[in-house]
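Hi,

I'm pasting everything inline rather than attaching a file, because the server keeps stripping attachments. The sequence lines come first, and each chain or strand is labelled.
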Amino acid sequence: MRKPYLLLTLILPAGATALSAQTDYYLRVGAIGASNLLRDGIVNKITVRQSIAPLVVLGGSLPLKRGYRAGLEGTISSGGFHSTEAGVEASLGTLRTASLLLDLSGPVAGQIRWWIGLGGLFYLPKDDDGIFLQGGTARLLAGAGADWRVPVLPRWDLMTSLRYDFHRFTTAELKARGFGQSQAISRFSASIGIARGLR
Amino acid sequence: MNRRSGWLGISGVLAALLGCSDISAPLRDDLYEWRLFVPAAVGSGTDTLSFHWPRSALPVRVWVEDTVGLPADFDRAITVWKSVYLYREFDARRVSDSVGADVIVRGSGLPASQFSRIRLHSALRPECSGATDLDISDDHTEFRTPVRIFIAPLASPEDPGLSQCLALTSIHELGHAIGIFRHSPNATDIMFANPVVDLPSAFDRGTAEVLYHVPPTLRLVRP
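And the predicted assembly:
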C-alpha cells in the first residue's frame, strides 16, 4: 500500500529534470474533511466518519494551449476516524488516505484558476480491523476546485486552494458482511503553500 | 480518441461515481438467544441477565495458565472474537499476572461451584471439557470479575483430537465471557453446547455483534 507514496516521489522529480523550464510545482498544507464513510444499523443507527485531518498536497503541471495546463496532484492525509451510536463517539483508530489525480487547469480571472482532476484514492488504515479487517481499499476519485496565486518572490507564488472531490466507498470486509452498493463520499479541503511561478 | 468518445468516457466515469444509491446495511437477523433467564432475585417471576464489556473496560485482561498450549489457543480465540466486530466493540489482551485479570483461564478440572456463581458447562467431547463461572450478585444487578474459565484435557497429549478440542473450546468459553450466556440450539454454531465447528458461524457472529448494541442488565464491578 506504499505505492501511492512511491509514485509521488518518483514521478514529480522525473518531470523536473526533463521539463523544468515549463513545469509548475507546488507544495501545500491544509486540512480535509469528509462526509460519513458509512451508515449502519445494529439496534441503533451507527455512522462512521473521518475526523478533519491535516493534509499535504504535492503537484506539478505542464503547459497546454491557451493557458491550460495538465498535471499530476498527490495528497496525503492522516487522522482519526470514529463511530457514533446514540450520540456517543468511539475511536476506530487512525486512517491515512493518499490520492493521485491527473488534472487539468485553466484561467478564470486574474490569479484565479479552475482545476479538475480524476484519479485514485487509497485508504490506508493503520490497523487491519473492523471495516478494514481485510485491509485498505482503492477508489476512483473525481475532484474540482480553484487555485488562487499571489506572487511573493520573483519565481515563487503563495498558493491557496479549495478542493471538492467525490468517490464511492466500500471495503472488502463490508462486502463480505453483506453491505450492498457503496457510500457516496464528499470531501472538502483547503490548503495553502508555495508554487513555482507560472510567469 | 475523438471528441465524442472522449465525452462518452467522461460520462461513463461520472456515471460510475454518481450512480447507485448509498451503501445498504445487511439485515442482522441471524442470531439466537444469548441472555440468561433465572428465577427473580426478589419475588416471583424471572430475571433476565445480559452483559457486555463496556468500552471503558477494554481491553479485557485475560490471564491464561501456561499449560497444554492454552495461551496460544486463547490468543487465537481473542483474535477470532475481535474480528466479529466492525466498530471495536470488543477487545482483549492476555496479561502475565492473574492479579487484576478480568478473565482467568485454568487448564484443569472443575472445582466445586461456589455460591452465587453461575456455571455454564460446555464441550462434552471425549477429548476435553470446558466450563465458565460467572459471578453475578445475588440481586442480579452486578457482573463481578474475574470470570473463571476451566478447560480440562481428558485425552492423552498424543490424541490427535485433543488440540482441536482445546482450540474450539477456548473460543467457545471466551464466547461466554464476552456475553453469550446461553448455548446455541444449532450444532453448526461454536456456541452449541457440544461444539464441533472450529470457528464462529454467521449466527454466532450475528449474536455477538447484536449483544454489544443492546443495553446490558448487569453492571460491571471490578474488585
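Chain A has one domain: 23-196.

If the labels don't parse on your end, tell me and I'll reformat.
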